[in-house]
């Protein structure tokens, strides 16, 4: 069975460099997005770029972002009804690539860049579902084991959505690409793997000893 | 002895939310920058924001960035002599903060946001030093154990500099801040630590067995 259709490339999702590393494959994009939960959100404020880290969740072909970071500029543009042009980037660093030459040093990574328009999620039902998704993107299963937001908390939380339309992934993997003339040099070459890991859950100081660590924090 | 003077806050480095987490402390900013080596570079292209991951190095009060990602828009602005307005953000995620309520879930993190103007590093001496710094930021000590760039490679590498002037750090640490009324709920609360670790160096397939793993890859 063929996979889903890829994202259509656009002028700005076509890299000028290392084009062979770019992909518009929908399953690859989803996999990279689903492995992360913190993105870098870019927007323009007073004519200058702003890049802030924030949490996100993917639900189908839509990203939800915790909106506190982008809510002020978003509000400003929403008065005009146009939404806020944004770029959302998710990056996983997998390794440092050490070549014999300084020039061929590189990084193994997987990234997704989303160009789009951010809009405030105003509907209460969509907002509540998005908040669950944000919690579950960080810790799968957690949203069902926490007190849901009450009306006051829901009203105090801003959520932003960005549709996945203009999207590309970029992947670099494997060892160094040394010059043939450098292979006999005495310098070590290869890859220093880098990974993000989760440690032992640290209970809150005021947590009752009877509340044990849930399985979703220790598995997977 | 007092520490160095802090960065002066500006309108755009003053957060509208969680101001108590913002800092302009120079030593804190340097420490956060020095712990990383991959940043997210934001700039404006054709009126829209672009955010791309790239490597960086801090040398005193200047950041150097590998310029391949930003070189095209930078070249365009350099014809006008003004440089490219950028935002450079470095983020370390330290943990997922799980509260009894969905609303009080949070992230422990340390980030630095640099607003400034990117310029191409054109001087050969500064460019060569910046390239060494980029390699050493990822793997301290490595630049002295690799073949230096030759004239052709140097000419093919673009390096961008951004001065550290308009800079702020933001830090969230510690456990969840639950509502007093939620403390008796049966949900686990605390922090799930997140860290970035380096694994066992993987030699290149064509590395001679006589070349052993250097100490700078296995220590620290």
From TrEMBL, chains A, B:
Protein name: Pyridoxamine 5'-phosphate oxidase family protein
SUPFAM superfamilies on file: FMN-binding split barrel
Organism of derivation: Streptomyces xinghaiensis
PANTHER family tied to this protein: 5-NITROIMIDAZOLE ANTIBIOTICS RESISTANCE PROTEIN, NIMA-FAMILY-RELATED PROTEIN-RELATED, FLAVIN-NUCLEOTIDE-BINDING PROTEIN
UniProt xrefs under InterPro entries: Pyridox_Oxase-rel (IPR024747), Split_barrel_FMN-bd (IPR012349)
Pfam (any one): Pyridox_ox_2
Residue numbers spanned by region Disordered: 1-21
């Amino acid at each position: 069975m063929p996979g889903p259709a890829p994202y259509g490339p656009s002028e700005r999702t076509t890299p000028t460099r290392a084009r062979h590393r770019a992909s518009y494959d929908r399953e690859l994009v989803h996999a990279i997005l689903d492995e992360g939960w913190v993105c870098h959100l870019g927007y323009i404020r007073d004519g200058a770029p702003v890049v802030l880290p924030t949490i996100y969740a993917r639900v189908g072909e839509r990203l939800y972002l915790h909106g506190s970071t982008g809510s002020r500029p978003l509000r400003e543009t929403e008065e005009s009804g146009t939404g806020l042009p944004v770029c959302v980037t998710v990056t996983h660093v997998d390794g440092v690539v050490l070549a014999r030459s300084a020039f061929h040093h590189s990084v193994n990574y997987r990234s997704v860049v989303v160009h789009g328009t951010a809009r405030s999620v105003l509907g209460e039902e969509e907002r509540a579902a998005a908040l669950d998704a944000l919690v579950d993107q960080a810790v799968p299963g957690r949203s069902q084991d926490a007190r849901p937001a009450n009306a006051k908390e829901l009203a105090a939380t801003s959520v932003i959505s960005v549709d996945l339309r203009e999207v590309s992934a970029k992947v670099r993997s494997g060892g160094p690409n040394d010059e043939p003339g450098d292979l006999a040099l005495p310098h070590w070459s290869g890859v220093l793997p880098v990974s993000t890991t989760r440690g032992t859950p640290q209970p809150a100081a005021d947590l009752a000893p009877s509340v044990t660590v849930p399985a979703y924090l220790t598995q997977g």
